[in-house]
Amino acid sequence: MIVVMEPKADEAKIQAVIARLQELGLGVHLSRGVERTIIGAIGEKKDNAIEILEAMDGVEKVVPILAPFKLAGRELQETPSVVEVDGVRFGDREVVLIAGPCAVEGEAQLFETAELVKAAGGSMLRGGAFKPRTSPYAFQGLGREGLKLLAEARRRTGLPVVSEVLDPKDVELVAEYVDMLQIGARNMQNFSLLREVGKTRRPVLLKRGISATVEEWLLAAEYVLREGNRAVVLCERGIRTYEPATRNTLDLSAIPLVKHLSHLPVIVDPSHAAGKWRLVPALAKAAVAAGADGLMIEVHPHPDHALSDGPQSLNPANFRRLVEELRPLAQAVGRALA
Ligand code: PEP
Ligand code: MN
Q: By C-alpha distance, which of 146, 144, 89 is closest to 337?
């Protein structure tokens, strides 16, 4: 429910409503506008809650929140959220470019890629230390060693880093080394992991599940928001369809749809969507044209030697060319590359 206070309602009246909501067992989300204060009540609504609240002093009206995602939706917060990661702003005018290898493989590979990303104009570095591989026999990542290398790459380049956390018990460890916690597609509905990252104050990059609907994706974001972590960025990375010619099918329509339904920033990962490096530039451009707030792109100094996702990784020359092609495109849609 949304409790809309009268413009002249003073602090005592606002606090009385908050206390009453708490008595009713509801969570409170306060938003103070210039004109009036709006109080969001989150949780199971009691039958007569609307009548009780409407009878209170200073309350203008009580409106139910229709969407199942209360905190992620636009009903409670109309204005888009800007999520800041160490100076990099998601959801603002600038399109944020995150790039880096699928997996951190070692010092030389990571530092070379980090320098390349920085020189080309990227704003953040990605790299997996804990890898969610389909086969248990495939390279699983360097773990803590990989996190240390990411922290060193940040020290060298100044680029904030994002890396995936796979297990609730590793959240604290990953949060210690990286600036943004990634929840991968395979874990989008790992609710204990979502709650755990929600308890941290590290921004979260929440990828869309391989077969998740937009509503399920926003409800996954709701788990993080509900724990008090309001810094959530969504990432469309392709969904599984009947088409095997690409690794996944990039759902471009999800970008304007999610922006309509939610105030959270949305970025696109064309690399995991396509699975083929040749398709990545076109999809990246399409994503920016469709209103994406950023891109996450896999790049490797030697894709043919990559320990994971080489076939979808851009080589340095192709990555630099893509960044240059994105600049005028971003401008054409009223944005700029960060
Ligand atoms: C990744 O970005 O490293 C990754 C594994 O992607 P996804 O979770 O989207 O498959
Ligand atoms: Mn990958």
A: 89
C-alpha angle 63/65/71, rounded to 5°?
130
Q: What is the DSSP string of 311-337?
A: GGPBPHHHHHHHHHHHHHHHHHTT-EE
Contact 141, 131 (CB under 8 A): yes
Q: Which of 217, 237, 280, 309 to mutate to test the pocket of ligand 1 (most atoms within 8 A of CB)?
A: 237
2-63 and 83-337: same fold? no
Beta-strand ranges (E) seen in 199-284 are 204-207, 232-236, 266-268
Residue 43 has pLDDT above 90, yes or no: no
Q: Is the pLDDT of residue 54 over 90?
A: yes
Report whether pLDDT(45) > 80.
no
How many CA atoms, within 13 angstroms, populate the side-chain half-sphere of residue 128?
24
Model pLDDT for residues 136-151, shown as the tens digit of each residue: 999 999 999 999 999 9
Q: Superfamily assignment of 83-337 in CATH?
A: Aldolase class I (3.20.20.70)
CATH node for 2-63: 3.30.70.1140
Q: Yes or no: say if 280 and 303 are a contact pair by the CB < 8 Å rule.
A: no
pLDDT for residue 284:
98
Using CA atoms, how far apart are residues 278 and 169, in angstroms rounded to an integer? 37
Tell which atom from ligand 1 comes closest to the C-alpha of 298: 2
Q: Kindly calculate the radius of gyration of the chain based on its CA atoms and give it in whole angstroms.
A: 21
Ligand 1 pocket (Cβ < 6 Å) reads 102, 128, 132, 164, 184-186, 207, 237, 269, 272
Domain ranges, ordered by start, for the chain: 2-63, 83-337
> What's the CA gap between 308 and 102, in Å, rounded?
6
- Ligand 1, atom 4: closest residue by C-alpha: 184
